[in-house]
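Task: encode each sequence below as structure tokens.

Item 1
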Amino acid sequence: MNNTQEQIHFTVNIVLGSDDEANFTYFINDKEVTGGGVVRTETAGIYSLDEATLAKGFLFTGATITDVNKETPCAQDFSFKVSDNGRTIAIIDTDENPGIACLVFNVECNGNPYTSTDPQVENEEEN
């Protein structure tokens, strides 16, 4: 991460549903948000698991980032870095190409892998 990029800090809560699916909820300053959004400049989304989620044994293992529309590819603008022993993942978006990317978080809990639903990220050109 560099000094010129915008940083957005998310807290993530994960609960296993009755269908054994991992349900992800995202917060900024204790307010629930979608976890995705529109990006107009180089941005790093910093996603940190909350204490309740960590207590259950969840940890980030990575992310899968793909293009929603192959005619406006932008997935190559994204990279990720897991840090703090899986407690945090940074999604870095260079915002070089307009388009919409599908962002899926990969986590593990007690040896079992889970994935998030997609908080889409849209790249737009700066005005």
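Item 2
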Amino acid sequence: MDKHTVAFLLLDVAVIIAAARVGGMIARAVRQPAVVGEIAAGIALGPSLLGLLPGSPDEWLFPEEVRPLLGGLAQIGLVLFMFIVGLELDMRLTRGRERAAASISAFSIVLPFGLGAALGLLLYPSHDTVGGVEIERLGMVLFMGVAMSITAFPVLARILADRGMMRTVPGVFSLAAAAVDDILAWTLLAFIIAIIEGGNPLEVARIVGMTLVYAAVMFGIVRPLLAKLVEWRDSAGRLTPDILAVILIGVFLSAAATDVIGIHQIFGAFMFGAVMPKVGAEQLHREILERLEQVSVLLLLPMFFVVTGLSVDLGGIGLSGLWQLGLVLVVAIAGKFLGAYAGARASAIPTRQSAAIAVLMNTRGLTELVILSAGRDLGVLSDDLFAMLVVMALVTTVLTEPLLRAVYPDTVVANDIAAAERRALAAATAPRVLVVLRDPDGTVDDLRARHRRLLDCTTGYDVVLAGLLTSADGRGKRLEVGVPVVPDFAAMASAIEKLNLLGASLTGSGSVSVLCRFSADPATDLDAMTRNANADVIVIDAADRELGEKLRAAPVAIVDENAGAGVAPGRSVVTCVVADSRSGRTAAVVAAGLALFGSRSLTVVSAGSRRRWLADLRPVVDRGVRVSVVEPRRHQGESGAFTVAAGDDILHGRGPDVPVTVVDNTETSEEALGERMTTLYADAPESADPVKTTDRSQTTDTTRSTSSPERH
């Protein structure tokens, strides 16, 4: 390799990286996946655009001696991408919805495959020669069928994450169907490649037999060995270079093995990702994605886009080929849409949600380019047909986002999530509190110990345990190489399970329900959850005081676990220091409830009329609560009192001996204090039986596990 070649290689790499980043930014600006802009940039650097300029600058910029080097980098990028596709494949996505996922996937493969094969028969006379060699009709027909059957799981997951649809019916079922689709489509493609490469029945049988042996080794030997990576990573506390090196060595050896077998290196990379440990490996997956993003997204995949773009000459299609391009687009869009829609409707999914699923299953993106690249390597796609199919991959991906917004607009997404959350709630039996538990780490016992006082304050109330998990966008940088869907789903499933167990352990509460969300905007999401739950009070830990002060949907009781050590509402006199403010009056309402369901003893420290206070507190007095009204100047403080104060009370609101601080920033008209007491406590049960409810429906949500996906 001479210096001239090296210089052009370095120049080309710089140009490609810059073009890919600019293309990705433009795509995101118009609400498209970044990969759309990156693919378009790769095509623009080829003969379709740059080659139209005088002097054919594409040939000067990418000389023949440099293109094989770019091709090598592109193949490495392709292998890493297919490893990520396999890594994100986890059949836990289908748990609880296996039949619907299988139905949608089967319909969305069978119909497009049949139409694609028929299209291959129709187009074969016009594209029967590749590089001067006549291709087999069967190979082209089968390949056209599988090319029309692909769904891009990574792009689909990114669109769902961007739209906030992972807790909706379309989000849940499209992801589950796409997981099944991946298995069926890639298996089918491997078999078709075996047929094409084999040429005769004996050779096909040899390739199939070796592939089965390879799969048995991967699942029977390699998979158990890889399971040790989780323990290795956990003991190290991070993804070390040694762990990543072991993974990459395995990826490339697996890819090399399938290339030798004759079913293309992409299958080896995909298979290695598929046999990576899934259960308990969520953090490992995220760290792998974060590491690979640096080299894959920035450097290697753009090489693949340009190598693909150099093979695409849109001008070569010509006017005579436009009808063929139109036919390709119609078959691709209609086949996938009608197939997925029929599968969803066969599973009794409503019309609008079925249409949204069908739109989502039509996205193809980079995954389609991988398939087409394999077809070009196999010699079953002519240059013109390859260009048409690349255009199809771009168009179907570009159409997904606007069509999805038309079929399933943001207002419907929000309404569906709210309706699902309301369905998850038990029937009201007492005043309802929404207990906020952010990122509930540790065991149930850990949560119980960490939030003992906060949970004690729920006695007598209907309880909604609201798990708020920091979303990927809230944790740090946004990943481009993949969306950690399954790790996030597993985290959600774990949180739901823990909150259900925690709810079952509560004693003296009314009904207990669980809601759980990912959130990049906790205040907005908590307000929405509060409205959906129709909660009377939000209870939050003092560690999240700043968040509590932002909430507007209901009054907030901020519980300090460390203030006033040893006191509790169930065994201590509840003392409310009432400020002359909205928060002060709400503090009296909260204190009255704590006394009613706790020690039955309430002291009100207020300069107001004693008679008026007793009248306002009549609903709890009639229920057996002993009430004392003391003027502030005469209040000496009671040893062991459980104090409730208003957050805007300068003297008492954040004192070291105030376990509960109340903040009322609601924006509704304030009711009279006596009316609020009557509404909340007049008909409340004397002692609430601990009726625990958990929503096990599979109607909505992404993160469903064995209980309920996102508890919506």
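Check on item 2: DSSP finds 28 helices and twelve strands in the chain. The mean pLDDT is 85.
End of task.
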